[in-house]
Amino acid sequence: MKRVSRVLVTATTALAVVAAPAVATAESEDEDRPGLQSRLDDVVAAGAVGALAEVRDEHGVWRGTSGVAERGTTREVPAQGRFRAGSVTKTFLATAILQLVDEGRLRLDDTVEEWLPGAVPDGDRITVRQLLNHTSGLYDYRKTLTLPPDPEFLDNRWRTWTADELVGRAVANPPTFEPPGSEYEYSNTGYVLLGQIVEEATGRSYGEEIERRVIQPLRLSGTAMPGESPRIGGPHPHGYVPTERDGDTHLVDFTEMNPSVLGAGGELISTTKDLNQFVAALLDGRLLSDDRLDEMTTPGVEGETYGLGLAWRDTSCGVRVYGNDGDALAYQSWSYSTEDRRHQVTIALTPDFSGDPDDTVDAFLDEAICG
């Protein structure tokens, strides 16, 4: 990848990070984008209570919404509302870790055993790199949890899960493959361990490190690492999960919940504007060195589309975009940018589980990037 404006984030360069402009950041808003609005309406019709999106390109900035912010009301989705970003968190955490690598405070080939002795079986064979690119083989702890629509899921709504608990549930199961590094299998467990490694390396929580290394320097005012706090502050759409009761499936408002179950790889709260700004800064080289960004965009296994906390996809017009997507139970989000940052798109929705909106989201992303 060819990039410009290489500035590392340190205490002395934070102002430079803020000042360096991304390509697609013009704040002139073009309201007349019927193709985008129609595609966004299709997303809601396919299975969402509401949706919101921001597109940045040569025409300026387009923000749109569809559906409602809360079931049973006519309240519009706030165009700059906040939502749970799910696994987009992984890209933020990976950025913080790669900054630590740039600073020489840890290495990608360090083993889990070196940082967290006894945390996982055969931890001396699993590296930080393999945790980042999902080639560790560690069982995904989310597969061990009671999930919707099982009504028992709601019993844990306010429960605080520790990292040790989540990892313990995972390693009670055998690896999904052997040896580590030989295959790709998505695992949230790896990112829980990465959060613990950050704490060991810095003496601060992973949330604090993400705040000081990414959120504050980029002035992402709508973004936060909530920890165990159940609320989403500020304007936001309500999110829902399905639950079975008396033989029927009902939607339960799940906007407020203890996000510790999402762990270090899923707790982020953000906005469409902030995610676009973050991905642009990342691809522009304002957060990482050239070497680290090159590694971030290199898959762990040939043929996969996931590197070190960063994913990519090819649109219908053949243009490759980089970013990530996230599923936070009651919220789903996608945030991608072209390599040159001239086209950026972030969309978030609150699913109603009546259908699968993935195809319509893909169509929206294609419309935003390809026109």
UniProtKB/TrEMBL annotation:
Enzyme class, spelled out: hydrolase
This protein's record includes keyword Hydrolase: yes
Molecular function terms from GO: serine-type D-Ala-D-Ala carboxypeptidase activity
Ranges for domain Beta-lactamase-related: 50-349
Keywords, alphabetical: Carboxypeptidase, Hydrolase, Protease, Signal
N-terminal signal peptide: 1-26
InterPro entries: AmpC-like, Beta-lactam-related, Beta-lactam/transpept-like
Keyword Signal attached: yes
Documented EC number(s): 3.4.16.4
A Pfam family of this chain: Beta-lactamase
Protein name (record): D-alanyl-D-alanine carboxypeptidase
Organism: Lipingzhangella halophila
Lineage: Bacteria, Bacillati, Actinomycetota, Actinomycetes, Streptosporangiales
